[in-house]
Structure formats: structure tokens, C-alpha cells
Amino acid sequence: MKKRKAKEGERIYLIKVTMSDWYGRIRGMPYRLLAVPEGFTLYNLAEAILDSFGFYFDHAFGFYDNIKSWVESTEGYELFADMAEGSEFKSVKRTEINEVFNKIKKKMLFLFDYGEEWHFIVELKGIESPKGNANYPLVVESVGKPPPQYEES
Hints:
By secondary structure, this protein is mainly β.
């Protein structure tokens, strides 16, 4: 994962990412609090999320506004929009975090791997100034151990 310093005047978004079941339940699930520059794309955010949970960045994904039923979402951003398949939703590579997470407490479902359907609830918790000479993204807090992405063979 490529890290970088915040650009001049760029704010840092504190984003809580919690694993969930297919119904949006998060009680007792592992979570990560990430600090990411507001100019990161959703593609960069997806990479940071997966890295923080120890997952490989090896499947298609999307961000959706319907936490419990992503197929019923009215706002969405998908990798498919960046590929030849096309999509009814917007691009993850051309959409910056600050365009989507435009208010504190806004939540989106991050769906990774449409076969396995790994669900993560992504919520903007705060916005702050960059810290010193930090390289972003940063894992500010890590709670709980996620299940393995792939079954051990």
C-alpha cells in the first residue's frame, strides 16, 4: 500500500470501518479507525481498509448507501464503473472520499468480493488537521481479530 503525506491544506478524515454480517449487524465485530487524506479516492480507501484487516486486494468491490441490501442502493460507487463492464453507479477511481463522506456520521456499506460478500460498515467519525509529518493512511485504532479471508487448506 502506497502511503503519502497530506497535501497543503488537505484535511484528514477519521473513518471507522467495522466488519458486519449480511444484515448490517456489527456488535462484537472487529473494527479499524483509519486516518486518510480527504483527497484519497474510494479506490485508495478500499485498499487501506483491506490492508488494515489483512485482506488481499484481489476482488471487485463497491460502496453502497443501503447497508442491509446493497442491491437496493440509490447511491453507489463501483470498480465495475472503471472497467469495461460499466455500471449504473459512479467510479471508485475518480471519486474522492470528501465527495462521498460529506458529513459526520455518514455511513456506507463497503462490499468486497461479490462471491464471498465481505461486508464492512464505513462511517465518517471526524475531520482533523494532519499530524506532523505522518504518512497516510494510518490505522489509528485496531480492535478485534478478523476472520481469515481464505480458509486454510
